[in-house]
């Protein structure tokens, strides 16, 4: 499976900015680098915020309070930009991952774009913050929708698993058709009487694989309520897809046995 979820703590090697004559395509790999850069910037901003907040708690002066507010605003901006670039990476990685035709990519891409636009629209509001009360308010607004980001990430990861399994089933169906065509020419005489029941066994295996994959998609689609009690979408999805893969392997083994006889 193509992994598009990046570990939280990675370091980006600094490089000089270049200005090419023609702009290069902004793809998933560039989005990943952009996210990693913003992740590092956010971590640095957080360290500075912790320092100034502690100074304010210690000295309680107007200067330390102003510094704490300024670094808090900077932290909010960096945090939301980090999450926005994560969503861009998620969206482009999802678009670049081959999936079966029954996955509506645009539907999920649109969900990412809505969240990206919301985060982008908040910048002027955050920049205008000047009091601790306002800081807490805009921070709570973000945290109220961060569960949506988490759920979307889980759902799209599950869709990648299900989509890749769908491609395996599609390929398995082609293998099945080719193998059965071969068997129809080799299973002659008395053996030909068993061909119909043998084909039925093969069809049952691929049908079961498809059924498990479709149930996995149902599980993913059912996790659409974005709140603080998000269920883990990936565990039941993986379980169903493991069953799907099992049936597909059984089909392949049956075909191999049939051809070798």
Report on this model:
The chain is mainly alpha-helical. It has two domains: 28-156; 164-260. 76% of the residues lie in helices and 0% in strands. It has seven helices and no strands. The protein has helices at residues 28-59, 62-96, 105-121, 123-127, 132-186, 195-222, 234-260. α1 (28-59) runs antiparallel to α2 and α6 (195-222) runs antiparallel to α7. The radius of gyration is 26 Å and the shape is rod-shaped. The model is unreliable at 1-23 and 224-231 (pLDDT under 50).
Could you give a short description of this structure?
With 261 residues, the protein is an all-alpha fold. 76% of the residues lie in helices and 0% in strands.
* Beta-strand content: under 5%
Helix content: over 70%
- The whole-number mean of residue pLDDT values reads 83
Count of DSSP E strands? 0
**What's the SSE pattern?**
HHHHHHH
Structural shape: rod-shaped
Query: How can the largest sheet be summarized?
Result: none
How many distinct helices? 7
Regions with pLDDT < 50 over 5+ consecutive residues? Answer: 1-23, 224-231
> Cα-atom Rg, whole angstroms?
26 Å
Q: What's the end-to-end separation, in Å? A: 34 Å
Number of domains: 2
Structural class: mainly alpha
